[in-house]
Specification:
Layout: H1 9-15, E1 40-45, E2 48-54, H2 62-75, E3 102-107, E4 111-116
Antiparallel strand pairs: 1-2, 1-3, 3-4
Length: 118
């Protein structure tokens, strides 16, 4: 429990507390194929760019957050299981979204995903 909701930015990211949704692509890519810290993010909302960032925005490298999670779970006698979705944290600033918004995210060589908020 968080007393009086006194949390840091790192706590919020680690808990995905501000995550309203996530979208997965349908073309998996081997982790070693990309320089994940260098991948650029561009998020468009209704055709306008609203967030820009990179993999380095997530603890310097997105796999650092996943490594921390795996290590912490192992210390608690639980492991990560194949097929689980791990959200490593935000690569760029968060934005507000509303019903009807159309979102399109491009992440470097990983590709892009789109959705409409309902």
């Amino acid at each position: 429990a968080i007393t009086d909701w006194k949390i840091t930015l790192e706590d919020t990211v680690a808990d995905n507390a501000s995550c309203g949704l996530y979208v997965l692509g349908n073309q998996p890519s081997p982790i070693g194929q990309h320089a994940l810290a260098e991948l650029g993010l561009q998020l468009d909302k209704n055709g306008q760019t609203v967030s820009v960032g990179s993999g380095a925005a997530c603890l310097g490298h997105p796999l650092r957050a996943a490594w921390w999670l795996a290590r912490t779970m192992a210390e608690r006698g639980q492991g990560l299981r194949a097929g689980e979705v791990i959200l490593s944290g935000a690569l760029g600033p968060m934005v507000n979204i509303s019903a009807g918004d159309i979102l399109h995210a491009r992440i470097g060589g990983l590709g892009s995903v789109s959705c409409r908020v309902i």
